[in-house]
Design a protein that fits this description.
This protein is mainly alpha-helical. The protein is 73% helix and 0% strand. The relative contact order is 0.14. The chain crosses the membrane at residues 30-47, 54-76, 82-101.
Length: 116
């Protein structure tokens, strides 16, 4: 469960840096954007030490997309047409589905995985 939380927090940082790439205008804002990029990818890398990379990346990007659309709509008053909302809901269902069918890898020793 810890690794899923790392992935979710990383996706939140992803939303931050995506918004920063679009909205940053000062050195301070660009610094925060760069920090968010670093944090998001460090958390993704940490989570993929246990979670399957393909699943973790799909969830990371999916949550980042959903979060970015939500922030754009709620904070920056961007329109959210019904068809776009339908696809965002479909994406979110896929992310939840991936979480439900994915098990965390055993974090035991290397020899337990037959890699002596």
């Amino acid at each position: 469960m810890r690794n899923w939380m790392l992935l979710i927090i990383g996706a939140m940082f992803e939303v931050g840096w995506v918004m920063g790439l679009n909205k940053a205008t000062s050195v301070f804002e660009w610094s925060l954007t760069i920090l968010a990029i670093i944090c998001s990818f460090l958390l993704l890398i940490q989570a993929t030490k246990v979670l399957p990379v393909a699943t973790a990346y799909a969830v990371f990007v999916g949550l980042g997309t959903v979060g970015s659309v939500a922030v754009d709509t709620l904070v920056f008053s961007q329109p959210l047409p019904a068809l776009k909302l339908l696809f965002i809901i479909t994406l979110l269902i896929g992310v939840v589905g991936l979480k439900m069918v994915t098990k965390e890898a055993d974090t035991g020793s290397v020899s337990e995985h037959g890699m002596d």
